[in-house]
Amino acid sequence: MFLIKKNWKKWTTAASLAALFAAPPAWADDLDAPQGVTDTEIRIGHLGPQTGPVAAYDKIRMGIQSYFKHVNENGGVKGRKLRLIAYDDQYQPGRTVQLTKRLVDEDKVYAMLGNVCTPCNVATRRFNERSGIPMLMTSSGSKQFVDPPIANYMGSSLANYEFEARVLTNYIATSLKAKRVVVAYQNDDYGSPLAEAAKEALKEYQDVELVGEVNFQAADSDLSTQAQRIRQADPDAILAFSTPAPAAQLKKALYNIGLSEPAFLVSSVGGDSETMFDLAGKEVWNGTISSAVLPKPDQSDDESIKQYIEQFGKDYPKVALADWGQTGWAAAEVLVEALRRSETLSWDDFLSAFDSFDNWTGSMYAGVSFSEHNHYGLTSMFITEAKDGHIVPISKPITFDPVTGQISGG
Amino acid sequence: MKKVFDRRWFVSLLVLVLLAFPFLVGQSSYFMGLVVTMAIYAIAAMSLNLLTGYGGQVSIGQGGFLMMGTYSTGVLSTTFGLPIWLALPSAGVIAALVSLVIGLPAVRLKGHFLAVATLGFGLSIPEIALNWKSVTGGYSGLPLMRPEWASDDLTFFYVILMLTFLVTWVLMNIANSRLGRAFLAIRDSEIAAAATGINVAGYKTVMFMISAFFTGLAGGLYAYWIQYISPNDFTIMASFFLLAMIVVGGLASIWGAILGAVLFTGIPHFSDAYVGVTNLVIGLAVVLVILFRPAGLVSLGEFFQRRKQRPSGETPVEKVPGQDFEEADNA
Amino acid sequence: MGQIVVSGLIFGCVYGLAALGLVLIFRTTGLVNFAHGEMAMVSSFVAFSLLTNFELPYYGAFLAAIAFSAFFGIAVFWVLIRHVSQASHLNQLVMTLGVFLAIHGAAGLIWGHTPTSFPKAVEGKSFSIAGVFITPNEIFVLVITFLLSMILFVLFRYTRVGLAMRASSQDLVAARLMGINVNAVFLATWAAGSVLGGIAGLLTAPFTFLGVSMMFNVLIMAFAAAVLAGFMSLPGAVIGGLMIGVFGNLVSYYWAPEMALVCTFALIVAVLYIRPQGIFGDAPTMKKV
């Protein structure tokens, strides 16, 4: 029974550790922050999958980390360094709930930034609303976190799913003038809600018909039966809601059975990356239409993109630039700007600092706006097309008004 | 039975520490959650140990029963409004009934064939949960509310702790009963067991049902603790980990299962601070334990204990890999 | 219909190839290797870095990666598996599970988690035969799978090495007494099994994309294929793979893609209920009482 004794020892260490964490750190009085701010640092939390089949999202963490490094090297924020504390929730809501408690109660982070995974965010929402911890730029396009506005949830780092579905269906109906549409979607918390939103949006166009619907799993590599079903539906346009790998598989499977005629559209998560040319093949991917919220690193002379290329390329030389790293970087830019605009760092002050964002263009995003009624943050996107190994914008920014629900521009 | 006194002493100490635990950690919800996760995995691992360690039936699909427990509890309590004291055992019963479907062919299957049949079950349950939208809510999952009287984490921590003690006690008794001895006999030789009048098929089915019942119950407890159910928790990796827990902890030993559960849920607490190393650390731990303590971590405790109190007259049994089934049952 | 069956056959080959190595190692050493897929994944990454960093031609990289596979198999056997060869099957299984986790974790740290494309063995566009589209690479995979399973079948049955492997699998002590160097046989088996895995990985990577999780689903399906066939027959493993590939595709097409996995395992349970030793398995014999 030696082990039990050992166990007990372990618990006492755990307990003393916890006591250590629980001891109130020295706050800076003038900033009035409830937690997570010391004289030297501001602690920010992030949760997402770092391992497992969807670990590609971990690049959001890398982007945040990289921007924090950039800020810290240039003097920090309010005289303090930013410190990121990130844990691996493996895309499992049960773990996210546990780790949220760890970040908020034990590590005492000041705010959380860019948390990945819709169901994980759903699972933790009640806890976060109760604790009041600022939840910033959540990496989910699900409407439930931003509309109707929740006091401590500010913005999402992805385009809102409904908005994106409407933009893409509008493009199919008005620009492509397609009559027969197939919706192909990844059967999970990412693809399914987008597909539902798209089917709803398609109903607005009376002469456009939904002729088929296929689904697949994120880990599927054989999409030949889906391609066959699509061929039988004989569409003019295929609208896919998918992460990168299955999107490439689907396009390849369609190409292999000689189906390259219909227009192929993919949501930004699965289409807005130049790695798609590598995955699907350059010839196969050409012509694919997608949407984007961030300009490609090689197509912009935006100041923050230049900084991103330099810093992220140095920190993560092996990771592609035009990928999720950008999302993390841009989300961190919004956080830092809000910190700078906030007078004291009480949560109330900090959260109301967001309301002063009126089409703020200092970040990688085209424009960031918040108001009392608008917690979306990101309300503009543009359409892109895959041409000769590059993803190029083919539309002006399209903007969505959260209050009226109107879409304009394009 | 000479060691009973010492065991009682240590068990009482462990129970006391666990009871005082919330106050040792300043009622930290996270640390209570860590113990709760350990307790839930301990229940599942003990149940699997009954099936695999005692009964010799390898299952790589226990995660499926955990998930069945979460969804059964969720649906029964939200859709049908069952109170917790009915929803939890019902979740266990549902899991047990479903285990009949596996148990039925399993009665005829052995070794790797059984392993793959159960693997299929563990893989299928998340798929079914994801696609049976009308009942499970599909990808959006199911929210679940705790009853009013146990809505705060402290109270519910004690609920889970008490139930874990109860289940441990019940499983210990099963393991040491006629039933447990019949399981061991089946594991060692089905033919010999049948020759002594043991109804092998019947006992195997019972084994599967008992194990599924408690695993389902554990799933239900988890659902109530997290208060949200999704098809992403308890994937096939959970099934792998459960199997590894009992082998690393010690087969055919209640303490072994508990040790394994504590180790596997404890490692991430320390490794999470380093990006992406958890799997590597757990994998290395499994390899090292099997190389150096083939009878599981529990043998480490016995080893020290025997050295301290030799006079009982037992000669220490040298542990031979491959015979690890034999001595572990008196652990 | 034709198209569905043909693409089912191609993925069936992928499963069958992975299953070949599993069955080979199981037949001789009695161990189910959960790390098989992850070892294959590492070999594919080795080939990839030879292709990109050292700019080797495809077949050079292919052969080098296969040589690496053999070495890797031997290393895993010698450093780890050898020490548990007398342990219970469950301990062995969990040991390989640990190796699986460790390799998966290490690979994630080394190569990251973004899938990349991997070159095909044979380039070329798809063409149509009687209304069914197929690419030259897919034909290549079909042919290689068929050839490999035939070669192994002949080796196992008609050569001295094969005889030694069969003898070791039946009775270790007797094999030793007959002058067979059992350790050498086991080493050779691990090398061969790992090479088969490596080939499977290299042929799978163009279909699944190269990534640390690329072999997980393939491995699960390979298990299913091996078990369906009875875990003892080498050609049987390939046939099991083909059956699973085609069956899954038919379910996916005529019913729903999300039901393919569930139905595949329901089929296996049903088959095993009727024939607990698998389709090609021998009637169960009592090894130990």
UniProtKB/TrEMBL annotation, chain A:
<dbReference type="InterPro" id="IPR028082">
    <property type="entry name" value="Peripla_BP_I"/>
</dbReference>
<feature type="signal peptide">
    <location>
        <begin position="1"/>
        <end position="28"/>
    </location>
</feature>
<comment type="similarity">
    <text>Belongs to the leucine-binding protein family.</text>
</comment>
<keyword id="KW-0675">Receptor</keyword>
<keyword id="KW-0732">Signal</keyword>
<protein>
    <submittedName>
        <fullName>Extracellular ligand-binding receptor</fullName>
    </submittedName>
</protein>
<dbReference type="Pfam" id="PF13458">
    <property type="entry name" value="Peripla_BP_6"/>
</dbReference>
<feature type="domain" description="Leucine-binding protein">
    <location>
        <begin position="41"/>
        <end position="389"/>
    </location>
</feature>
<dbReference type="InterPro" id="IPR028081">
    <property type="entry name" value="Leu-bd"/>
</dbReference>
From TrEMBL, chain B:
<keyword id="KW-0812">Transmembrane</keyword>
<feature type="transmembrane region" description="Helical">
    <location>
        <begin position="206"/>
        <end position="226"/>
    </location>
</feature>
<keyword id="KW-0472">Membrane</keyword>
<dbReference type="Pfam" id="PF02653">
    <property type="entry name" value="BPD_transp_2"/>
</dbReference>
<feature type="region of interest" description="Disordered">
    <location>
        <begin position="310"/>
        <end position="331"/>
    </location>
</feature>
<feature type="transmembrane region" description="Helical">
    <location>
        <begin position="31"/>
        <end position="51"/>
    </location>
</feature>
<feature type="transmembrane region" description="Helical">
    <location>
        <begin position="238"/>
        <end position="267"/>
    </location>
</feature>
<feature type="transmembrane region" description="Helical">
    <location>
        <begin position="155"/>
        <end position="175"/>
    </location>
</feature>
<feature type="transmembrane region" description="Helical">
    <location>
        <begin position="63"/>
        <end position="82"/>
    </location>
</feature>
<protein>
    <submittedName>
        <fullName>Branched-chain amino acid ABC transporter permease</fullName>
    </submittedName>
</protein>
<keyword id="KW-1003">Cell membrane</keyword>
<feature type="transmembrane region" description="Helical">
    <location>
        <begin position="273"/>
        <end position="300"/>
    </location>
</feature>
<dbReference type="InterPro" id="IPR043428">
    <property type="entry name" value="LivM-like"/>
</dbReference>
<dbReference type="GO" id="GO:0015658">
    <property type="term" value="F:branched-chain amino acid transmembrane transporter activity"/>
</dbReference>
<keyword id="KW-1133">Transmembrane helix</keyword>
UniProtKB/TrEMBL annotation, chain C:
<dbReference type="GO" id="GO:0022857">
    <property type="term" value="F:transmembrane transporter activity"/>
</dbReference>
<feature type="transmembrane region" description="Helical">
    <location>
        <begin position="6"/>
        <end position="26"/>
    </location>
</feature>
<feature type="transmembrane region" description="Helical">
    <location>
        <begin position="93"/>
        <end position="112"/>
    </location>
</feature>
<comment type="similarity">
    <text>Belongs to the binding-protein-dependent transport system permease family. LivHM subfamily.</text>
</comment>
<feature type="transmembrane region" description="Helical">
    <location>
        <begin position="209"/>
        <end position="229"/>
    </location>
</feature>
<dbReference type="InterPro" id="IPR001851">
    <property type="entry name" value="ABC_transp_permease"/>
</dbReference>
<keyword id="KW-0472">Membrane</keyword>
<feature type="transmembrane region" description="Helical">
    <location>
        <begin position="259"/>
        <end position="276"/>
    </location>
</feature>
<feature type="transmembrane region" description="Helical">
    <location>
        <begin position="180"/>
        <end position="203"/>
    </location>
</feature>
<feature type="transmembrane region" description="Helical">
    <location>
        <begin position="236"/>
        <end position="253"/>
    </location>
</feature>
<protein>
    <submittedName>
        <fullName>Branched-chain amino acid ABC transporter permease</fullName>
    </submittedName>
</protein>
<keyword id="KW-0812">Transmembrane</keyword>
<dbReference type="Pfam" id="PF02653">
    <property type="entry name" value="BPD_transp_2"/>
</dbReference>
<dbReference type="InterPro" id="IPR052157">
    <property type="entry name" value="BCAA_transport_permease"/>
</dbReference>
<keyword id="KW-0813">Transport</keyword>
